[in-house]
Amino acid sequence: MPIRIGSCTCGQLRIEVQGAPTGIGICHCLACQQRTGSVFAALASFAAPYKVIGSATEYVRTGDQGAKFIFRFCPVCGTNLFHTEEGVAGSVGVAVGAFADPGFPAPQLSIYDCRRHPWVRLPAGTVAFKKDPP
């Protein structure tokens, strides 16, 4: 089973995941734009088990549908590396850029497409949702 290691900029915080991603998506919501400092967040979901190496700072944000997301940041360099959803065990969302792999697969989903900057083009075959899918 393939192992991937995602890392913050300084290398203090890392996450080790196994197997293929269970999903890859991009989110254009304003909260993700502010959180990443970019025009969208690119995230890959992986099933447990996963291993965290280093220490993280946590930030909890409540989504539009009431879910609580726990984002983990490196306290040294500030990189937002991964997140989980409160009450949902068994999966983790990792920032695609943390793998530093230009060959990483393209997203399958685009959410909050209503907030997508008009100059951002989605890869062919990406399924877009106006907001968060049900």
UniProtKB/TrEMBL annotation:
Keywords: Lyase, Metal-binding, Zinc. Signal peptide: none annotated. InterPro entries: CENP-V/GFA, Mss4-like_sf. Pfam families: GFA. This is GFA family protein. PANTHER family: CENP-V_GFA DOMAIN-CONTAINING PROTEIN-RELATED (PTHR33337:SF40), GFA DOMAIN-CONTAINING PROTEIN (PTHR33337). Residues 4-113 form the CENP-V/GFA domain. It comes from Collimonas rhizosphaerae. Belongs to the Gfa family.
